[in-house]
Amino acid sequence: MARTMHRLSAASLRGKPAGKYADGNGLWLYKRHDDGAQWVLRYTIFSRRHEMGLGRFPDVSLKEAREEAEKWRAVVRQGKDAIKERERERREAERNMHLLADVALDAFESRKAELKGDGKAGRWYSPLELHVLPKLGRMPVSQIDQRDIRDTLAPIWHTKADTARKAMNRLGICMRHAAALGLDVDLQATEKAKALLGQQRHNAQNIPALPWKEVPEFYRSLSGGTITELALKLLILTAVRSYPLRHIRLDQIEGDVWTIPAEAMKGRVGATKDFRVPLSQEAQNVIAAAKPFARDGYLFPGVRKGVISDATMGKFMDRRGMKERPHGFRSSFRDWLAETTNAPHDVAEMCLGHVTGGSVERAYRRTDFLEQRRALLEQWSSNVVELSATDAKVVGILAHSASDS
Fold first, then answer.
1. For residue 86, what are the CA distances in angstroms to 68, 72, 76, 180, 388?
2. Which end of the chain is flanked by fewer CB atoms within 10 Å, N or C?
């Protein structure tokens, strides 16, 4: 065997003319007329001869070629086809070298249809983009473990607890997405990281809300007739969330009913039913005042494009020196319902677009309590604009009778 091995020497390789040169035991150097050269391993398995490329010379040295050849000879001795085994290993390596940044983007794209506005607001992706991908984005997802996740989220685990929770949740989704792609990942990595990080100390704070008795005074102050003020007025009168309010379109309004598409309602992902909002007379007046500002079908357009932002309404309240947030008016309305009306729980929750009861109960309960909600929102409107006592009493009687029915 010694006489048939290592026939070539590193010093003589470069000067050899075009041709095929055996180093022994199946290792050959093929030299071309253009001075290019390739290492080749010849082997026989299952009665068939194969030639396996081992790299270019001089990129792969004689020593390296010999080591590589011996590696694959050992594979052949195990009864495996070296070329097929190398392809299998290459595919396995590629399968497990997907970077987290690529997997996260793919996971986001696959879920866009489930997200409000196809995820254009970026709220699903932003916790990953801001707090996870800068540190872990360039790592192969198969190599990420609980210690990596712990070290990444530890700086915000207690100080920005809600953001950290969302980032951990999104990362878990990405890991499951990677597993669905066939990648070798630790699906328990996020749960293990939570155990390492410990219980979060931060307590979530409720969004500051204006007491319902102070809402009429604030409503009266919205007298400038600007888009922001009109949007805040309609937000108060309808008690809807900011997103559907800001994206309200003229073609969603028919008479005294505003129909919000199902996909624009939080917590109604995949729902097939739209949500109807009864419009009080005051709400209709606000819509009429806002129509001259409409652009591209949107009732509350932004300054340059799109629609008014949530931050715009928040900053308006900031300038008033208020700590309360626009979303808090939903809480103001709910407190008013609880303290001044005898509206049934299901009707009160439906006013806010909340889903109540189990899936079976909801399957049998087909009503959306539109008429009961119409009376309650009319009474709320009366409270907000402070109608005369007589008028308010009449509307109140109607609301109570509707909620009792």
1. 12, 9, 11, 25, 86
2. N
